[in-house]
């Protein structure tokens, strides 16, 4: 799979201020005598990402597998709950407002825990942090159905979401650092896996619940198996980090926390000094990207938390409503691979933002006037609109030149964006409870699409945060 993906992007590199950088970078020091360039026959991490340690083909494939499995686990904790929200509310005695709070927990956890991801990655290595995230997801999904009471359910959900938050932030960093000449393809692969995990949880949760006896508890807990599989795939990278750390003093610590050894552990004399952190808040592009991320996250979490209930209240059966939610999410499987590849070839990503926004407005209009009559069409349109997420991830990789810049931009855009998205799902629950219908919530979702288009166009301009932050 990796061979075809590399064919186009190795010629494009990363765009900055109207020019194209070559994909081979010389920012990090290496041991004298180490190969200066990667063997073109072995697609995998760039030399500076791995230090002096050779990367064999099986190790590259294992890293790609780990990225895919981690991505598959980043949404089932949310969409599986959305499919059974009515049963969970009845079982725990939740009101509409409390259920709205529950759907706001994901962005709250992502904002709070996502900030810590770059710091943890620098200290322990990105592989160790992602492994810990997968363990947290597994534990949270196993505990929450049987925690007893709303408070325990929320706490266990927060544990799983903490693991998701750490991996959310580090995935663009890992892609940029280990696959710098394939940002579009690897982001597409990762986003495709994420969309697959999202849609399969939405579609399969209700049938699996029925097959497991009709109780919602095992229907939610079964998704912990995916987290356990992902955690296993990251164990070799945790051990590799420990082995590298014990080999000698680090010559350089990259933005994602990968330590590179030089010689017998002594830094090279010509090793570049560690760059100071960017003043990321001075970048207008960083702010535009953060707001765009926040507004698309608002739409996504409203969709994952409430869309199945909207269809059910319109007279659609629970199983069909779950399938409609799955259709919305499964649209991201092909489009999440196509959109990043197209985006990396455009000097400005604004046209893609506009197309996604128009699809969202059309889907919400149909949902308002004929929610059941055109349900499948509205699901398709909202599924296209929901692909603003892989576009946002791609722009994170394109709006910074260095791994350190991507790490800071990813943490800033995602943490700030998720903070912005917190009120949305909660407000939808409050409006639904007090109005007795879905007219006002759908009007709110439509209204939020307009500023999402505006800031997305601004974030899509061809510039980098390093240049803006230096002004």
Automatic annotation (TrEMBL):
Question: Residue ranges under compositional bias (Low complexity)?
Answer: 23-35, 253-273
List GO terms (cellular component aspect): membrane
> Which one of the record's GO molecular function terms can you name?
transmembrane transporter activity
Is Transmembrane a UniProt keyword of this protein?
A: yes
The protein's UniProt keywords, in alphabetical order, are: Membrane, Transmembrane, Transmembrane helix
- Disordered, as annotated region: 1-51, 247-275
Does Lipid biosynthesis count among this protein's keywords? Answer: no
From the record, give the transmembrane residue ranges: 62-85, 97-116, 128-147, 153-175, 187-208, 220-238, 286-308, 314-339, 351-370, 376-397, 409-432, 438-459
Biased composition of type Basic and acidic residues is found at 8-22
Question: What name does the UniProt record give this protein?
Answer: CynX/NimT family MFS transporter
